[in-house]
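agent> Task received from the user: take the single chain below, predict its 3D structure, and emit structure tokens. No templates, no multimer pairing.
agent> Plan: (1) validate residues, (2) run structure prediction, (3) serialize to tokens, (4) report one or two observations.
agent> Step 1 OK, no nonstandard residues flagged.
tool_call: predict_structure(input=
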Amino acid sequence: MRLKPTIIVFTVLLLLFATALKAQKSLTLGATAPMLNESVEDVNGRSLTLSQSTEEKGLLVIFLSNTCPLVSRWEDRMKSIATTARLSNVGVIALNPNERIRERGESISDMKKRSTKQSYNFSYALDKDHKIADAFGATKTPEVFLFSADMKLIYKGSIDDNPNSASQVKNKYLEDALQAMISGNSIKISKTAPEGCSIKRIK
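)
tool_result: status=success, residues=203
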């Protein structure tokens, strides 16, 4: 009986240690994009990879979902940024990692309906078993990762500082980082905390 408090403390410490290890998996700035050749299925039934989605000047990866309210609030801004990226030879791909609730609004069929209804101007693909999200260390939807031409991470985090109102945005984090990368300038803010809904993982 005397061992129980010790066992409890030890168990808690193990859980904290495991959480810390998991947190360390998040991509660091300057890291090379992982899983470039992992195949994903997009809403049009095509098999894509991050490598195939990359353009001459880099790649923007967005983790999205259909059911997160914050995603819908940012959608118009995401489409505008995607247009800028594509016109500047930066590839764009969105991935849906919400495996735990696939049958509750996050299936490939749901994704297709969302993409059509919102007129997505970028590829929207299923990240089965959230493999790519895990490799990136993504935790939220939406959450963005911007890679340069040599596939080094130069910005990660939130789209901007106000999901509720585009007119009240003070810091256009992703747009500013994208413009700086395109023009060859240094990025003033290269990392922000993602704001959104937690990724619904199966483990």
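agent> Step 4: summary for the user.
Residues 20 and 150 are 29 Å apart (CA to CA).
agent> Done.
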